[in-house]
TrEMBL record:
It is found in: Membrane. It comes from Acer yangbiense. Residues 344-365 are annotated as: Disordered. Belongs to the purine permeases (TC 2.A.7.14) family. Its main location: membrane. The chain crosses the membrane at residues 21-43, 55-74, 95-116, 128-146, 153-173, 185-206, 227-244, 264-287, 292-313, 319-338. InterPro entries: EmrE-like, PUP_plant. GO terms for molecular function: purine nucleobase transmembrane transporter activity; purine nucleoside transmembrane transporter activity. Keywords: Membrane, Transmembrane, Transmembrane helix, Transport. GO terms for cellular component: membrane. This is Probable purine permease. It is a multi-pass membrane protein.
Length: 365
């Protein structure tokens, strides 16, 4: 009887973990596809403040307090049925994990600037393809930091995605926006590539801190991690805005914005909320699976962003982008085919269906 109850509880936890994974994939999809489009809209219609765009990527961190509060009330309600349990804490994070999330947040702040600079100079369809190279960096750092295991299929996927992004370096003059110098375009390309490399490091670092944080990781703790990370990233960007005098010119830039002053502020708020979905989704997928899967999903969404950029902004789609897109899709198919084969082998070897979701906790919330 006890064995059956344990098995039922394990299955319930696995189902909860799968639901959380799907939720975070949805959040990541919204942020990954909508973020660059909204940011590019700001620059296309008169916006010029790179540090402001960087700041908006994490400035909505106080919104995370809402789900953290809901998780706290859920834990508190559960503790009332167990009088002998210890008092329920609002924040679960301990100092080691707080310090780690703060360091990751500082790195994220600089990465936000690199990314915003690239979006300011490159068409969305180009910057998105360059960001695809992030997967190669994520894979490399995941191997070094968290001992990520690779198959021939995942290696092939990383290689194809990296080559696909490199193809964009060919004939870049054809893609340069009107009025932008070749130097500015190349610098935007390099800054975007640097952003991809840095975020490729950040994702495995998040996974590493989960493993080395010296406390059990629940989804409530993941949200706290996200909040602290975005707080420190916002502080870095705030310093940049102060040095660049961005706060002083926001009012004037809003009045001169081509779409109108009201839409300027709506765009700013919308951008902040969309990017918050991205960051919460990214760290949530790492919690439910791995940093490599988070990087894969970011790259999976590449075709969607590509199509949306061409539809809404009428961006050019030259042969180089087509080749890059085909190589990227080929790499993604290779990766998921390898994952499917690997999962089948594990199921056959262990003769158990519960190999999809690693790191199942006794209390996902």
């Amino acid at each position: 009887m006890a064995k059956m109850e344990t098995q039922t509880q394990t299955q319930s936890n696995a189902a909860m973990k799968r639901a959380l994974l799907l939720l975070n994939i949805l959040l990541l999809s919204i942020g990954n596809c909508g973020g660059p489009l909204v940011m590019r809209l700001y620059f296309l219609h008169g916006g010029k403040r790179v540090w402001l765009s960087s700041w908006l990527q994490t400035a909505a961190w106080p919104v995370i307090i809402i789900p953290i509060t809901i998780a706290y009330l859920h834990r508190r309600r559960g503790s009332t049925t167990q009088p002998s349990s210890s008092p329920t804490k609002f924040f679960l994070m301990k100092p080691p994990l707080f310090i780690a999330s703060a360091v990751v947040g500082i790195l994220t702040g600089f990465d936000d600037y690199l990314y915003a600079y690239g979006v300011a100079r490159l068409p969305v369809s180009t910057s998105s393809l360059v960001i695809a190279s992030q997967l190669a960096f994520t894979a490399g750092f995941a191997f070094l930091l968290v001992k990520q295991k690779f198959t021939s299929f995942s290696v092939n996927a990383v290689f194809l995605l990296t080559i696909g992004a490199s193809v964009l370096a060919l004939h870049t003059n054809n893609d340069r926006p009107n009025g932008e110098s070749n130097k500015e375009y190349v610098l935007g390309f390099l800054m975007t590539l640097a952003a991809a490399a840095l975020y490729g490091l950040i994702l495995p670092l998040v996974e590493l801190t989960y493993k080395k944080g010296k406390q059990e990781i629940s989804y409530a703790l993941v949200m706290e991690y996200q909040m602290v990370m975005c707080l420190f990233a916002t502080l870095i960007c705030t310093v940049g805005m102060l040095v660049n005098n961005d706060f002083k010119v926001i009012g004037r830039e809003a009045r001169e914005f081509e779409l109108g002053e009201g839409r300027y502020y709506v765009l700013a708020v919308g951008s902040a909320l969309i990017f918050q979905c991205f960051f919460l989704g990214a760290v949530g997928v790492i919690f439910c699976a791995s940093s490599l899967l988070s990087g894969i999903i970011i790259t999976v969404l590449l075709p969607v962003t590509e199509v949306l950029a061409v539809i809404f902004y009428h961006e050019k789609f030259q042969a180089e982008k087509g080749v890059s897109l085909v190589l990227s899709l080929w790499g993604l198919i290779s990766y998921f085919y390898g994952e499917i084969k690997q999962n089948k082998k594990k199921k056959k070897k262990k003769q158990t269906p519960e190999t999809e979701m690693p790191q199942v906790d006794s209390n996902p919330c």
